[in-house]
Amino acid sequence: MRFKALLLDLDGTLLDTAPDMVGALNRLLIAEGKPETDYAEASKYVSRGAAALVNHGFGLSPEDDDFERLRLAFLDTYEQHLCIDTKPYEGMMEVLEWCESNNIHWGIVTNKPDHLAKPILDKLELTERSSVNVGGTTLNVVKPHPGPLLHCTTLLFLAPSDCLYVGDDERDIQAGRAAGMDTAVANWGYIAEGSNPEDWQSNYICNKPEGLLRLVKELSASN
Asked: Is 9 a catalytic residue?
């Protein structure tokens, strides 16, 4: 692998967004006359987005009559409380700083809609630092489709084999593998109940951001 770019999922990988996303779910539950959900349980579904959180909080599936109304209401509530307690995971800023100091591109590939992802990155002053940002509405496909990752390689003028993609959901690893990239599991993120990252066929599993920093240093040294 000729390591030239580190591409990151957003929720559960670069940023701990669960406080604001679960907070939005609980606001909606209260508004609908329902009891609040348990934070630790709900946070496991954050990487799978609004639909998974509504399913968890309300016990509804997409085919149920009220599901889409609640999904849109969740997104509206979340947008109003977008970046209150969201912050980078401890150790991730060191990863970004090391990449910037060593001529390694870093960027974001997330399924979070662009109108939600961009304000968060703007507020955390990460937008201008990153080499590329691809959100869930940038293209007409999302992960596990490899399209968003391949779009990044086009923008960066790199081959997929030049990139490492890191995420905390099996869809991230599926997308990276389909794109021809090396992949790493962010095992500190929102690993869904019953999921076993060892079964995802990633190249690497990093238990903490410090482990990811060691990995990118090793990959860079092998260039």
From this structure: yes
